[in-house]
Amino acid sequence: MRSPLNFHRKMIPHAAGLLAALCLIARAEPVMPTVPEDVKAPPADASKTESGLASKVLKAGTGEKKPAATDTVSVHYSGWTTDGKMFDSSVQRGQPASFPLNGVIKGWTEGLQLMVEGEKRRFWIPADLAYGENPGGGRPGGLLVFDVELLEIKELEKVPEDAEKTPSGTAFKVLQEGKGEAPGGTDIMTFHMLVGTLDGQTIQDTRTGPQAPSASSDKLPPALGEVLATMKPGEKRRCWIPEPSAPGGHLVAEVELISFKEAPPAPPVPEDVAAVPADAKKTASGLASKVIKTGEGKDKPAATDTVKVHYSGWTTDGKMFDSSVTRGEPTQFPLNGVIKGWTEGLQLMVVGEKRRFWIPADLAYGENPGGGRPGGLLVFDVELLEIVK
Fold first, then answer.
1. 267 within a domain of the structure (yes/no)
2. Which structural domain range is residue 54 located in?
3. Residues 221 and 112 in one domain
4. 40-82, pLDDT tens digit by residue?
5. Is the dihedral of CA 213, 214, 219, 221 positive or negative?
6. Does residue 72 fall inside a structural domain?
7. DSSP 3-state of 62
8. Both 54 and 12 in a single domain?
9. What is the DSSP string of 248-315?
10. Do residues 283 and 344 lie in contact, with contact meaning Cβ atoms separated by under 8 Å?
11. Which of 131, 154, 177 is where one domain is finished?
12. pTM of the entire predicted model
């Protein structure tokens, strides 16, 4: 069964990951919390909020401070359906759970803000503040009952009062000065970044990848692009980026501008971008391609190989949505880690070959993938530079 920690999160899934990790830890002599006598419905002495959340204090707390929705808390809890079936319990696992309050079900976000440290409270959470009546996916439906003990309100890193700010409101401090000039608006910047939450959870660290990322400021998230565009090569900054869904309302990033260069010109739009031409070859899967430049190699990559390529991609209306060529940096990836059309298509090529692919939606991202990804038939020009075994 899923717990409140598995509620859908907009950006930061660390709470659910933490719970999954905790579940792997073997515990000797687990404690089985007793089923509450009033599990079927809120008793007469329970207090109710305007939202319909009912609760009563089981043990008074020793603290005075109450958490805010953006705070991270540590708790012990157990949860039951109204028939007395326990579906989740940190008490039984013998390990408290920690999470940001704005990353769990609405009943928990509201209810924990009523508590002080050391307090234990029973909640009767109606379906519209939990998972709904029939949520599916193994989650419990209807009215849910939780016993929750607030162990700690965790202190988060604060945005320094003396930090400088970009025009959009991103706070930053310079950790290391750079030299030279700042990049222009269309320049390709090569950089490293370590992004995390104010409670210490790492979201992304580009230093663990095979190469530092490169992009122009307009191809990056606005806050990151704005920061990098005002830096000099060699400069390092610690940045506090506003993000309402994150603990403390911010993400924290350490950013280093390695270098920048003028962006190469964009490749021309293929004349046959609108549809597969008659001279293209098709595979059984529906993948179409034709050779634009022959290669000098003999070996073809396997699906498990890592390859280095230059590429550009267009939708059938001629809009280029991505290009390593305009970034001025080839890209490297394992063939079994990309869209199906690339996995299949690159295995047809030899080193030095350049090929145009028409990749149908079912071998790419689908018809309406969302998340900023292009849908429908996609056209790619791909040059295989190296097979990295």
1. no
2. 4-154
3. no
4. 999 999 999 999 999 999 999 998 899 988 888 999 999 999 9
5. positive
6. yes
7. coil
8. yes
9. GGEEEEEEEEEEEEPPPPPPPPPTT-SS--TT-EE-TTS-EEEEEE--S------TT-EEEEEEEEEE
10. yes
11. 154
12. 0.55
CATH code at 240? Answer: 3.10.50.40
Structural domain total, the chain? 3
Rg for the chain, CA atoms, rounded: 27
For residue 363, what is the DSSP state?
A: G
Distance of CA 74 to the CA centre of its chain: 23
% of the chain beyond a pLDDT of 90: 75
- Residue at a domain's end among 154, 178, 204: 154
Q: Which residues are catalytic?
A: 311, 321-322, 339, 365, 380
Q: Tell whether the model's pLDDT for residue 27 goes beyond 80.
A: no
Q: How far is CA 236 from CA 89, 173, 174, 331, in A?
A: 44, 9, 6, 24
Three-class DSSP category at 79 = strand
Whether residue 255 sits in one domain with residue 176: yes
pLDDT in tens, 96-155: 998 888 889 999 999 999 999 999 999 999 999 999 999 988 899 999 999 999 999 987
Same domain, 138 and 47: yes
CA pair distance 139, 144, nearest whole angstrom:
11
- Measured between alpha carbons, how far is residue 167 from residues 22, 223, 242 in Å? 42, 10, 13
Which residue type is seen at 175?
Answer: L
Please, what is the Cα angle at 215 between 211 and 218, to 5 degrees? 160
Helix (H) or strand (E) holding 387: strand 378-388
**What local confidence, expressed as pLDDT, does residue 30 receive?**
55
The answer as to whether 269 is a domain residue is: no
336 and 217 assigned to the same domain: no
Residue 11's pLDDT band, with cuts at 50, 70 and 90, is very low
Tell me the CA distances in angstroms from 112 to 50, 66, 70, 88, 149, one per residue in order: 15, 8, 11, 18, 9
Helices (H), 3-122: 14-23, 90-93, 106-112
pLDDT digit string (tens) for 321-341? 999 998 888 999 999 999 999
Q: What is the DSSP letter of 184?
A: P
Q: How far is the C-alpha of 16 from the C-alpha of 22, rounded, in Å?
A: 10
- Amino acid at the residue 237: R
